[in-house]
Amino acid sequence: MGSAAMTYAFGWLHGLRDMPWHQSEVPGNSNMLGNPSVSVQVSSYVCSLRRRKVQAGEVVISARAITSALLSRIYHYNHLPENWTIRPYWPSPRQPPDNASGGRLEAWGGGRARRLVQAAYTIAFLCLLQFDEVLKIQVHNISFFEGGMTLTLPFRKTHQNGDIKPYYLWALPQSEAHLCAVRPMAEWMHASQVRSGYLFRKLASGDHVAEANTPLTLEQFLEMFWNNLLDVNVDPAPYGTHSFWHGGCQYLHIERRWPLRRICEWGGWSQEFTNLTIVKYLISLNDDSLEPR
């Protein structure tokens, strides 16, 4: 989490983006260029630090759970006309980062980008998915039926040998639109015009979907997610790509009153209860203590 926070701070707030840290190749110039956190040295240090903490018995604190209330705030902000409208492409010169130019942070994403994240948020939240699973979803994994859709994952970390059951998701009423996965998925597929290959593709300039069949990376999604949190005045530092898996587990148990065994079956987790994995998602030191548990 600390590494991701550094990458975001250097990349977005200081305008260094995600270029790996390297020495200039210009003869006579020994300056270092790029993002200092995107380097082999930093990655090795973070991995080593994590191993030492675990060996020392330190409890690993997961990313803060995203709540249905926060999803509602993000949903309504993204659906404001100035954010949701898909505008025609108009090339413009590159501008410096927001904090250096006085520009608006909201400019991080147009109508297509916000449709993409809305679909990804709800799928991850409701299906208890890790985001590397979400970003590998392809068009043929989705099928619609009257009143809902099915999602058949190509792989799951919890099902290394296959036998992955499909998810059946139903359209929710307007009062729960921020939790509905069916409508945002249909809206994203219509807006993106992606007909085959990876569903959540990289976005090119001008809020256009890249033609190459290349999925969004975890780092790119995390930057979009954190910018979306800043839109609604929420500090993004405690949140990560596990926030949806974590939050969805709490939502199903606390708000939907699902028993633990049903949650484990839905999420494809072990039902032997020989470890406390699910407890870590239900109760975490990193969560907001004011949220009901």
From TrEMBL:
One of its GO terms (molecular function) is DNA binding. The keyword Mitochondrion does not apply. It comes from Paxillus rubicundulus Ve08.2h10. It comes from the Eukaryota. This is DNA breaking-rejoining enzyme. Coiled coil: none annotated. One of its GO terms (biological process) is DNA recombination. Keywords: DNA recombination.
